[in-house]
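Justification of resources, computational component.

The compute hours requested in this renewal are based largely on the per-chain cost of generating structure records like the one below. Each record pairs the submitted sequence with a full structure-token output. That output is archived, and it is also reused by downstream analysis tasks.
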Amino acid sequence: MYTRRKFFLSALTAAGVAVGAAFLFSILFRGGERCEEPPLVYGREECPVCKMVVDYPPSAAVMRARVRGVERWYFFDDIGCLATWHREVETAGGEVLLACAVDRVEGRWIDVERASLLVTTEFTAMGTGLLAVAPENVERYKRGETSGSWRVKTLEGVTLYNPPKISGQLVRVVNYKCVRDKFHYGPAWSTPPNWYSDC
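The structure output for this chain reads:
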């Protein structure tokens, strides 16, 4: 026999499962919560800082932010621009929900808060030399290793991108907080020497 008590307990259990599933879904699949597939299309998006078109994958970055109640993606051609915009969002009273960059070794998107950021003499879109790698890939970067072709979205669709060989020198490994707090462009978009010395 199905009593009111059994009905109430069944309904309560079903509601708990539904709320738990909705919470898990929001964590796993909400836009801006993961770096795996940001909606960047190379050759189409413009960096809000330097106004250049984002078209060089090794130094590309993205951000999901909420400013004045509006949540959206921003795209950057260089990690220096990402750090600059991060400060702008916070100054405007906004919230950075996620900041990601391309792992220079593997070509996958990684969370910059968990990444090792490399100060290098390698080419980047704005000449900062800032690159991101997963912490376990720092040694691979030092050895000049890359993981073959990367899948990227362009105006022509999803294509394979062959990254240039790693060149230049690794000067220092820093974290994103250091870049966000210490890096500022100099005159004419120059990179000040030794900006990272206090990191």
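The first strand starts at residue 61 and ends at 67. Residues 14-32 have pLDDT under 50 and may be disordered.
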